[in-house]
Amino acid sequence: MKKTFLIIVSITVIGLILGASINVSAEENRVPEWVKNTAAWWATDQISETEFLNAIEFLANKGIIKITGPSTPAEEKYMVIDYKFSILQPPNWERQAQVIEPSLGSKENSIVASGTITYDVPTKIKVSVMDAKGSLEEHNEWGLRLVDEIIRSIGGEFTVNSSGNTTIDDEDAVLSDWTIKIFGTEIKGKSILVIHRGEAYSISYEADEKNFDGHIGQFEEMVKTFKFL
Q1: How far is CA 119 from its chain centroid?
Q2: Model-level pTM?
Q3: pLDDT, tens digit, for every residue of 129-172?
Q4: Packing angle, helices 2-18 and 33-43, rounded to 10
Q5: What structural domains and CATH numbers belong to the chain?
Q6: How far is CA 211 from CA 113, 177, 192, in A?
Q7: Is 169 left (phi over 0), alpha (psi -120 to 50) or beta?
Q8: CA separation for the pair 52, 49 (Å, rounded)
Q9: Helix residue spans in the chain (DSSP H)
């Protein structure tokens, strides 16, 4: 009993020192007798810590115990523009360079889903800020009309499939589902527009029609983390 207790204590102490978790096999007879003695000797200062660690390394190499590093969550990343809002960026998305459009007075940050950046239509999430063109409804109508004019000017077709009311960070917002057909490609998108302190914030998701469902869930979860600062 004393030896078993010393082994348990020894392994626990090593776990604390190394910041690792150690799983010991339930089959006690798999642990060589000399290792048990080594643990007892180390616990009573009859051998050095280096010698004891060599014994632990032997057990790990033989598969008798398993040593794994501590589990640490991935670093959280946020999208921010001029510290006006924050929104949690999903993992495995690549940040793109900020786009500033002086004629519209807008700033846009975007991220692209890893693995889609080389596609003709990368799967993308965009967040933009600009001065509001009137009320929420007025700005929404202005924005949709502008997109329609731009797409039609290059021979494409822009269609709003559905539009409805929602909220974001306790503010009234408009949610729109849309489709762009251009150059033989169909792009599906979803946008949320909200106005806060005289500025319009747009959060949108777009992808090739065949890839749209692949990351829409991440976008919807991301939107829930949006906060005005």
Answers
A1: 21
A2: 0.66
A3: 999 999 999 999 999 999 999 999 999 999 999 999 999 999 99
A4: 70
A5: 2-68 (no CATH), 77-228 (3.40.1000.10)
A6: 11, 15, 20
A7: left
A8: 5
A9: 2-18, 33-43, 49-61, 136-153, 212-223
- Calpha distance 147→224 (Å, rounded): 26
The residues near 153 (Cβ < 8 Å, ≥ 6 apart) are: none
Place of tokens 């502008």: 146
State both tokens at 176.
């729109």
C-alpha separations of 31 from 9, 14, 24, 53, 56 in Å: 15, 17, 9, 15, 11
The 10s digit of each residue's pLDDT in 86-125 is 999 988 899 988 888 888 889 999 999 988 988 889 999 9
* Dist CA 191 CA 168 (whole Å): 12
Task: Kindly list the distances between the CA atom of residue 165 and the CA atoms of 48, 55, 130, 157, in Å, as whole numbers in the listed order.
Answer: 70, 65, 20, 24
The two three-digit tokens of residue 19, written as one number: 């910041």
* Residue 127: closest CA among 74, 61, 201: 201
218 in Cβ contact with 192 (< 8 Å): no
d(CA 182, CA 155): 7
- Phi and psi torsions of 42, nearest 5°: -65, -40
